[in-house]
Every structure is written in C-alpha cells, then in structure tokens.
Amino acid sequence: MQIRVKLAEKYGFCSGVRIADIKVRRFAIDGGIGAILGQVVHNERVVSEMESMGMRTVETIDEVTEPAIVFSAHGVPPSFHDHAHKRGLEVLDTTCTFVYDIHREAGAALEDGCHLVFIGESGHREVVGYTHDLDPEDYHVVSSLNDAQAVDWSVYSKIRLFYQTTLNAEHYEETVRHIEKVNSRTIRADTICYATKENQTAAEKLAADPEVELIFVIGGTKSANTHHLWEITSKIKPSKLIQGPDDIDSVWLQKLTCVGITAGASTPDSLIEEVVSFLEQYKNPE
Ligand code: SF4
After folding, report:
1. CA nearest ligand 1 atom 2, residue
2. Which of 53, 108, 170, 242 has its CA 20 to 30 A from that of 134?
3. Which of the residues are catalytic?
C-alpha cells in the first residue's frame, strides 16, 4: 500500500538563508576562495556541499588561511568584522537583514539607557552576535523562567527585550511576563522572524490534520528552528526528526497511510525532495 505524503503549507529555507546560500555559491563559482565561520546554514548537507566547492567551515577567524571569510546569516559581533579586516581578509557578509535590524535596534535601545534582555540560547551564534561586544552589565540572556527569576529586574530604569529570531515565542511567554511584572518599564521588540512563525503555524496545522498519522521534520542536528518545529508537531502527532531519507526506519511506516512533512529554515529543497520521493515510492506490505 502506498503512503500519501502531505507537505506543510510553508516549510524549508527562509529568505535569509536562501540569500546566504546563493551568495556563497556565487562567490565560489566566480572563483572565490574562502572559509565559512561556523556553518553558513545549519545543515550538514549544505556544509558538505560548500566544502566540496572549496568553502570549508572554520570555528574561529584565526584559523582562516584563505583570502576571504564568510559570515553566516546568523550574523556576528561587530568586532569580528574588525578582526577579519585586521587579518587582511575579504569579508563576504551574508548576515540576514532581520538580524541586522535587531543589532541596530539593540544599539539604539542601549544608547537610550535601556538594559537589554535577549530571550534565547546564550551560546547560539545569533545571540553571540548581539551580545559578545557588550559590557556584561548592560544585558542578560534569558532562556528559561528560572533564569528570569534569578535576576532582580526592578533595579533597571527601563528594559528592552528582544527574542532570538527563530524561537517559538509562546514557550517564553511566562518568562517574559515575569520580567514585565517585576519591571513595568519593559518593552518587548517583536523580533521573532516571520519565516519562523509561518513555518511553525504551518507545522501545527499539518500536525492537526486528521489524515496525517506521523510527521517527519527534516533538518540539521544543529538547527534550533528545526528542533522547535519538532517540539510543536510532537505535541499533536508522533513526530520524527530526520536529516534525510537514510534516517527513516521502515518500522515507523508500518500500517501508515498518510505522513506529513515539514522542514527547518535551513533545510535545502533538494533534501526535502529526496524524502518526499522516498516516501512516495515506499510501499507498505498489503
Ligand atoms: S529565520 Fe528569519 S531572521 Fe533567520 S535568517 Fe531566516 S529570514 Fe533571517
């Protein structure tokens, strides 16, 4: 029996990642030689494709021996640009325009005397980009209600609060409300990216579809937004986080008639197509 595949109404690459991916590929095709700081896209397939084009991934600017360095869509602290220029490196900056908006808004809020709060993961590269160059007295990174409860927010004259773009805001509502309750001069910036929201809403809708029995969430193991999609769908339907068709265990497919598919903002179209084609060709024993 053949399995029907339903795709979420919105999934996969966001505009920021699509642009970053195109910029790096064009650079390599035009003969550019560079190293990518971190992963240009949080997806193992894309990383190895880039490596095969001569664009290897490095973890620090000092490791770069190529003439150019690529900064990913997540953005970097401003000091990284200075460091790269001091080393004489050409910079290919693929920072997403929405991430740059947050850098600008945070800078303006700081000048306005606000204490900055970033709701997100302290080690996430996007958050590191916002906070690395700041005085530790000027900001907090909060990733849970416990974190929020450990700080006396009343001491700050005003607070400006930003979200890491790829978060599910609902998960942090209680945390943000706690800060607002302790300090009524807290203003939230609506910085959850529309692409993330759209993928999340579509994933939730797909999981609620009565015909869909199992959801595959496709994405890299280091992709935070892919993991968030899985969190959303797994509350409603059994869900499997996979990187590609090779991760699919046929045991999961037994007796299924319809599966749903969604993918993180860093998952390339080619990988999604491979999973769809695998499932469409798969036949459960009658
Ligand atoms: S998820 Fe949004 S903010 Fe992040 S890179 Fe994509 S478009 Fe930009």
Report:
1. 193
2. 170
3. 126
Cα of 162 from ligand 1 centre, angstroms: 15
Domains 4-12+194-281 and 15-96 agree in fold: no
Give the CATH fold of the 98-188 domain. Answer: Cobalt-precorrin-4 Transmethylase; domain 1 (3.40.1010)
98: Cβ below 6 Å to ligand 1? yes
Sheet with 139-142, edge to edge strand ranges = 139-142, 115-119, 159-163, 186-188
Q: Which residue owns the Cα nearest ligand 1 atom 5? A: 16
The model scores a pTM over 0.85: no
Which CATH class for the 15-96 domain? alpha beta
* Atom of ligand 1 at shortest range from CA of 98: 3
pLDDT tens, position by position, 133-192: 999 999 999 999 999 999 999 999 999 999 999 887 888 999 999 999 999 999 999 898
Q: In what order do the strands lie in the sheet with 4-7?
A: 4-7, 258-263, 214-218, 239-242
Q: Show me where the domains of the chain are located.
A: 4-12+194-281, 15-96, 98-188
Per residue in 73-99, pLDDT (tens digit) is 999 999 999 999 999 999 999 999 999
Residue 42 CA: distances (Å) to CA of 17, 135, 156, 227, 243: 9, 28, 36, 12, 11
Q: How many angstroms does the Cα of residue 193 sit away from the middle of ligand 1?
A: 6
Establish whether residue 40 lines the binding site of ligand 1, counting it when its CB lies within 6 angstroms of any ligand atom.
no
The H or E element that residue 174 is part of is helix 173-182
Mean predicted lDDT score pLDDT of the chain: 94
**Is the CATH code 3.20.20.70 the one for domain 4-12+194-281?**
no
Q: Which tokens is 58 given?
A: 């490095």
Q: pLDDT at residue 65 above 70?
A: yes
pLDDT of residue 112: 97
**Would the CB of 16 count as within 6 Å of ligand 1?**
yes
Q: What mean pLDDT is predicted for residues 64-70?
A: 96
